[in-house]
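Dear support,

We are seeing what looks like truncated structure output for some complexes. This example has two components. We would appreciate it if you could run it in full and send us the complete C-alpha coordinate output so we can diff it against ours.
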Amino acid sequence: GAVVSQHPSRVICKSGTSVKIECRSLDFQATTMFWYRQFPKQSLMLMATSNEGSKATYEQGVEKDKFLINHASLTLSTLTVTSAHPEDSSFYICSAREKGVLNYGYTFGSGTRLTVV
Amino acid sequence: GQNIDQPTEMTATEGAIVQINCTYQTSGFNGLFWYQQHAGEAPTFLSYNVLDGLEEKGRFSSFLSRSKGYSYLLLKELQMKDSASYLCAVSGVFSGGYNKLIFGAGTRLAVHP
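Here is the complete output from our reference environment:
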Protein backbone atom coordinates (compact mmCIF):
# COMPACT_ATOMS: atom_id res chain seq x y z
CA GLY A 1 0.00 0.00 0.00
CA ALA A 2 0.85 3.66 -0.17
CA VAL A 3 3.52 4.80 2.28
CA VAL A 4 4.37 8.30 3.44
CA SER A 5 7.67 8.82 5.20
CA GLN A 6 8.01 11.76 7.58
CA HIS A 7 11.26 12.91 9.16
CA PRO A 8 12.37 13.62 11.75
CA SER A 9 10.09 11.78 14.16
CA ARG A 10 11.26 13.91 17.07
CA VAL A 11 13.15 17.19 17.22
CA ILE A 12 14.13 19.51 20.02
CA CYS A 13 15.29 22.98 19.07
CA LYS A 14 16.13 26.22 20.78
CA SER A 15 13.77 29.13 20.72
CA GLY A 16 14.44 31.38 17.74
CA THR A 17 15.85 28.69 15.47
CA SER A 18 14.18 27.10 12.44
CA VAL A 19 13.22 23.48 11.95
CA LYS A 20 12.51 21.66 8.70
CA ILE A 21 10.21 18.64 8.51
CA GLU A 22 10.14 16.44 5.42
CA CYS A 23 7.28 14.42 4.05
CA ARG A 24 7.89 11.94 1.22
CA SER A 25 5.56 9.68 -0.66
CA LEU A 26 7.61 6.56 -1.22
CA ASP A 27 5.72 4.58 -3.80
CA PHE A 28 3.26 6.95 -5.36
CA GLN A 29 2.98 10.44 -6.76
CA ALA A 30 1.29 12.85 -4.42
CA THR A 31 -0.71 15.53 -6.18
CA THR A 32 -1.52 17.21 -2.94
CA MET A 33 0.05 17.15 0.49
CA PHE A 34 -1.50 18.42 3.67
CA TRP A 35 0.10 19.59 6.89
CA TYR A 36 -1.68 19.22 10.21
CA ARG A 37 -0.85 20.26 13.74
CA GLN A 38 -2.10 18.51 16.82
CA PHE A 39 -1.86 19.79 20.38
CA PRO A 40 -2.16 17.34 23.31
CA LYS A 41 -5.62 15.82 23.65
CA GLN A 42 -6.87 17.77 20.67
CA SER A 43 -7.66 16.75 17.13
CA LEU A 44 -5.77 17.37 13.94
CA MET A 45 -6.00 20.93 12.71
CA LEU A 46 -5.31 21.50 9.05
CA MET A 47 -2.61 24.11 8.61
CA ALA A 48 -2.11 24.20 4.86
CA THR A 49 -2.56 22.39 1.59
CA SER A 50 0.29 22.21 -0.88
CA ASN A 51 0.12 21.28 -4.53
CA GLU A 52 3.21 20.38 -6.49
CA GLY A 53 4.68 23.39 -8.23
CA SER A 54 2.34 25.97 -6.75
CA LYS A 55 2.07 28.02 -3.59
CA ALA A 56 0.57 26.47 -0.52
CA THR A 57 -2.92 27.42 0.59
CA TYR A 58 -3.00 28.26 4.27
CA GLU A 59 -5.95 27.87 6.59
CA GLN A 60 -7.29 30.88 8.39
CA GLY A 61 -5.14 31.89 11.33
CA VAL A 62 -1.99 30.10 10.16
CA GLU A 63 0.95 32.43 9.54
CA LYS A 64 2.40 31.66 6.14
CA ASP A 65 5.64 33.49 6.89
CA LYS A 66 6.18 31.40 9.97
CA PHE A 67 5.26 28.03 8.51
CA LEU A 68 6.99 27.82 5.15
CA ILE A 69 5.80 25.02 2.90
CA ASN A 70 7.58 23.85 -0.21
CA HIS A 71 6.21 21.15 -2.51
CA ALA A 72 9.02 20.95 -5.03
CA SER A 73 8.19 17.57 -6.52
CA LEU A 74 5.38 15.03 -6.66
CA THR A 75 7.02 13.03 -3.88
CA LEU A 76 8.35 15.64 -1.46
CA SER A 77 6.89 18.42 0.64
CA THR A 78 8.66 20.25 3.44
CA LEU A 79 7.39 22.33 6.33
CA THR A 80 9.81 24.80 7.91
CA VAL A 81 8.91 26.29 11.26
CA THR A 82 10.80 29.57 11.31
CA SER A 83 11.88 31.37 14.46
CA ALA A 84 10.31 28.68 16.57
CA HIS A 85 8.92 29.50 20.00
CA PRO A 86 7.74 27.24 22.83
CA GLU A 87 4.11 27.71 21.78
CA ASP A 88 5.00 26.04 18.45
CA SER A 89 5.74 22.83 20.32
CA SER A 90 3.28 20.34 18.90
CA PHE A 91 2.81 17.16 16.90
CA TYR A 92 3.01 17.89 13.17
CA ILE A 93 1.61 15.33 10.72
CA CYS A 94 1.64 15.33 6.94
CA SER A 95 -0.76 13.56 4.64
CA ALA A 96 -0.56 12.88 0.95
CA ARG A 97 -3.18 12.14 -1.68
CA GLU A 98 -2.25 9.87 -4.52
CA LYS A 99 -2.41 11.33 -8.00
CA GLY A 100 -5.42 10.06 -9.88
CA VAL A 101 -7.22 8.77 -6.79
CA LEU A 102 -10.07 11.17 -6.26
CA ASN A 103 -11.72 10.64 -2.94
CA TYR A 104 -9.96 7.74 -1.39
CA GLY A 105 -6.34 7.50 -0.46
CA TYR A 106 -5.29 9.96 2.19
CA THR A 107 -2.07 8.49 3.57
CA PHE A 108 -0.53 9.88 6.73
CA GLY A 109 3.07 10.17 7.77
CA SER A 110 4.13 9.00 11.21
CA GLY A 111 4.31 12.52 12.61
CA THR A 112 6.98 14.79 14.05
CA ARG A 113 7.05 15.73 17.71
CA LEU A 114 8.54 19.24 17.91
CA THR A 115 9.68 20.60 21.24
CA VAL A 116 10.96 24.16 21.41
CA VAL A 117 12.99 24.99 24.52
CA GLY B 1 -17.40 27.41 8.29
CA GLN B 2 -17.18 23.67 8.57
CA ASN B 3 -18.54 21.87 11.61
CA ILE B 4 -17.90 18.29 12.65
CA ASP B 5 -19.19 17.18 16.05
CA GLN B 6 -18.52 14.03 18.03
CA PRO B 7 -18.58 13.22 21.74
CA THR B 8 -15.43 14.06 23.63
CA GLU B 9 -15.15 10.90 25.70
CA MET B 10 -16.79 7.50 25.99
CA THR B 11 -16.22 4.48 28.17
CA ALA B 12 -17.15 0.88 27.51
CA THR B 13 -16.56 -2.61 28.83
CA GLU B 14 -14.36 -5.23 27.24
CA GLY B 15 -16.42 -7.50 25.01
CA ALA B 16 -19.24 -4.99 24.63
CA ILE B 17 -20.38 -2.91 21.66
CA VAL B 18 -19.95 0.86 21.41
CA GLN B 19 -21.29 3.34 18.90
CA ILE B 20 -19.52 6.65 18.30
CA ASN B 21 -21.63 9.26 16.58
CA CYS B 22 -20.54 12.07 14.29
CA THR B 23 -22.61 14.87 12.82
CA TYR B 24 -21.31 17.25 10.21
CA GLN B 25 -22.28 20.46 8.48
CA THR B 26 -19.86 21.24 5.69
CA SER B 27 -20.01 23.28 2.52
CA GLY B 28 -18.71 20.34 0.50
CA PHE B 29 -18.77 16.59 0.83
CA ASN B 30 -17.28 13.73 -1.06
CA GLY B 31 -16.73 11.20 1.67
CA LEU B 32 -16.51 10.54 5.39
CA PHE B 33 -13.62 8.79 7.07
CA TRP B 34 -13.05 7.25 10.46
CA TYR B 35 -9.55 6.99 11.89
CA GLN B 36 -8.12 5.47 15.04
CA GLN B 37 -5.31 7.28 16.82
CA HIS B 38 -3.27 6.13 19.78
CA ALA B 39 -1.52 8.78 21.83
CA GLY B 40 1.60 10.13 20.14
CA GLU B 41 1.00 8.23 16.92
CA ALA B 42 -0.37 9.09 13.50
CA PRO B 43 -3.99 8.23 12.74
CA THR B 44 -4.70 4.90 11.08
CA PHE B 45 -7.50 4.45 8.58
CA LEU B 46 -10.56 2.51 9.68
CA SER B 47 -13.34 3.17 7.19
CA TYR B 48 -14.63 5.31 4.36
CA ASN B 49 -18.26 6.02 3.42
CA VAL B 50 -19.37 7.98 0.40
CA LEU B 51 -22.84 6.46 -0.13
CA ASP B 52 -25.62 6.09 2.41
CA GLY B 53 -25.65 2.87 4.35
CA LEU B 54 -23.53 0.57 6.40
CA GLU B 55 -19.98 -0.54 5.61
CA GLU B 56 -18.78 -3.52 7.59
CA LYS B 57 -15.18 -4.51 8.10
CA GLY B 58 -14.57 -7.14 10.72
CA ARG B 59 -15.29 -5.80 14.21
CA PHE B 60 -15.74 -2.29 12.84
CA SER B 61 -18.73 -0.92 10.94
CA SER B 62 -19.49 2.59 9.78
CA PHE B 63 -22.79 4.11 8.77
CA LEU B 64 -23.57 7.22 6.76
CA SER B 65 -26.70 9.26 6.14
CA ARG B 66 -25.86 12.17 3.86
CA SER B 67 -29.32 13.74 4.14
CA LYS B 68 -28.96 13.91 7.91
CA GLY B 69 -25.27 14.79 7.96
CA TYR B 70 -24.73 11.86 10.29
CA SER B 71 -22.36 8.97 10.65
CA TYR B 72 -21.49 6.46 13.31
CA LEU B 73 -18.69 4.05 13.96
CA LEU B 74 -19.67 0.77 15.59
CA LEU B 75 -17.07 -1.28 17.41
CA LYS B 76 -18.00 -4.82 18.40
CA GLU B 77 -16.36 -7.29 20.77
CA LEU B 78 -14.34 -4.53 22.33
CA GLN B 79 -10.78 -5.25 23.32
CA MET B 80 -8.51 -3.34 25.66
CA LYS B 81 -6.34 -2.35 22.71
CA ASP B 82 -9.32 -0.47 21.25
CA SER B 83 -8.76 2.24 23.86
CA ALA B 84 -7.78 5.16 21.64
CA SER B 85 -9.12 8.32 20.06
CA TYR B 86 -11.51 7.91 17.15
CA LEU B 87 -11.53 10.71 14.62
CA CYS B 88 -14.36 11.51 12.25
CA ALA B 89 -13.18 13.36 9.14
CA VAL B 90 -14.94 14.79 6.12
CA SER B 91 -13.40 15.08 2.69
CA GLY B 92 -14.59 17.79 0.35
CA VAL B 93 -13.78 20.85 -1.66
CA PHE B 94 -14.00 23.69 0.83
CA SER B 95 -12.29 27.04 0.69
CA GLY B 96 -9.34 27.30 -1.64
CA GLY B 97 -10.82 25.06 -4.32
CA TYR B 98 -8.86 21.99 -3.31
CA ASN B 99 -10.15 18.72 -2.00
CA LYS B 100 -9.10 18.40 1.63
CA LEU B 101 -9.76 16.36 4.74
CA ILE B 102 -10.91 18.07 7.92
CA PHE B 103 -11.31 16.42 11.29
CA GLY B 104 -13.69 16.50 14.18
CA ALA B 105 -12.32 16.93 17.67
CA GLY B 106 -12.09 13.18 18.22
CA THR B 107 -13.68 10.84 20.74
CA ARG B 108 -11.45 9.31 23.42
CA LEU B 109 -12.65 5.80 24.10
CA ALA B 110 -11.62 4.01 27.27
CA VAL B 111 -12.25 0.27 27.40
CA HIS B 112 -12.39 -1.24 30.89
CA PRO B 113 -12.10 -4.89 31.92
